[in-house]
Amino acid sequence: MKVGVLVPQSKLYPRLGKDFVNGFRFGDATFPNRTIEIVIQTLASGQFRDGFKDVCHAMQLQHQVDAIVGFAETPALDDMATFTEENRLPLIVTNIGGKLPVGIEPSPFLFFNGLDQWQSMWLLGKYVGQQVGDQYLVASEYYEGGYDFTMAFQEGLKLVGEATPLANYIKTFNPLPGDEMTLVNFVKELQPKVIQAAYSGQHALEFFERCAQHQLNENATVAASFYSVAEDLLPQLNVAAVGTLTSTSWYSGLSLAANQQFVTQYDDEFEDLPSAFSLLGYEAALLLHQAYRDAGLEKFKPKAFSSALATVAINSPRGTLKMDATTQRTITDHYLLEVVSNEGILQLKEVQQLEEGEGLEARLTQLADTQKHGWTNPYLCV
């Protein structure tokens, strides 16, 4: 089998492409009797909306790939259903999950496997509404505002209570002097029970510094998107981050035995801990191999392969990962995490598994015709 791998360039995560390819090759090596030949293509920032289909088409025509695994976000997939079906090209779309998976036309050749951070935020909103309260304030910034984390959190809250924020603070791209006091004044005046934070990188560090300086979370729980408190940020975060709740479907410290084995073996191979991009590459290789095996193929046949991929299941570091035959999205568990201090070192502690419950898929169907907005690049791929 010959597979095209489309990876983006990222200033936020410069090793994104390398991590994904390393993870893919690591997963491929678990099937020593049938390796995958890969053709790698990087995607520039401007190629995600208008160029994604063209790159896929070129990979099929010029390199004769049988299938493609590529980073993309919902807005870039408007006509990919027709394209994949007309060209009988199985495509696994992968990403962190910055956008709700709505408004995408189905195709028997179009599949999705990501971290589904939008779903993690949906479930976090539901949990917070049940356990803490629904009086919340949004704190975010210009880049994060182009994704659906806040919307997903709000949708989760709707399942259990009022979902209208007391205020929305979105730090602009070029903030005016004194802008940082706007959030402080909101919190002091409105006294929310929850601050729903969506940040990454330097903006996350600045947010928790502000929490420390002005005691913003002294009487409020911070419910944050995962990349506000991601593992690579923890050593730099202010101690004010302790007590922050977040959620994800995977992080390197996940206590599952399969994950601990994966992290140890990956570290032995590459002398580095796996990132989320390493995991997604690893899973992509396993999904492709398992589908090929399930289809009982001696030679690649796109229809038979895609039929098998539609019901494939693998043992992933994050637990059982299976493809939903209706949505053709992978399904996995999500976990509630809390930032804790262990002898002055900030860590993520697993609190519990988050139950999806009923209503998510029905609500996504209702949202299918909503206006698409925000960035077309996959989250963190800038």
Task: Present the secondary structure layout.
Blueprint: E1 2-8, H1 16-28, E2 37-43, H2 52-63, E3 67-71, H3 80-87, E4 91-94, E5 110-112, H4 117-131, E6 136-141, H5 149-158, E7 168-171, H6 180-190, E8 194-198, H7 201-214, E9 221-224, E10 245-248, H8 257-270, H9 276-295, H10 302-309, E11 313-316, E12 319-323, E13 330-331, E14 334-342, E15 345-354, H11 360-366
Parallel strand pairs: 1-2, 1-3, 3-4, 4-5, 6-7, 6-8, 8-9
Antiparallel strand pairs: 10-14, 11-12, 12-13, 14-15
Describe, in plain words, how this protein is organized in 3D:
With 382 residues, the protein is of the alpha/beta class. It is built from eleven helices and 15 strands. It has helices at residues 16-28, 52-63, 80-87, 117-131, 149-158, 180-190, 201-214, 257-270, 276-295, 302-309, 360-366; strands spanning 2-8, 37-43, 67-71, 91-94, 110-112, 136-141, 168-171, 194-198, 221-224, 245-248, 313-316, 319-323, 330-331, 334-342, 345-354. Strand 11 and strand 12 form a beta hairpin. The chain is globular and about 65 Å long.
Keywords:
alpha/beta, 382 residues, 11 helices, four-stranded parallel beta sheet, five-stranded parallel beta sheet
- Mean pLDDT, as a whole number? 92
Pick out the low-confidence regions: none
Termini gap: 31 Å
Taken from the alpha-carbon principal axes, the silhouette is globular
Report the sheet with the most strands, covering strand number, pairing sense and barrel closure: 5 strands, parallel
Give the strand order of the largest sheet, numbering strands 1, 2, ... along the chain: 2-1-3-4-5
Order of helices and strands: EHEHEHEEHEHEHEHEEHHHEEEEEH
Q: Please compute the radius of gyration using only Cα atoms.
A: 21 Å
* Alpha-beta classification: alpha/beta
Our count of helices gives: 11
Measured as a percent range, the helix fraction is 25-40%
Write down how many β-strands occur, each being a DSSP E stretch of 2 or more residues: 15
Content of β-strand? 15-25%
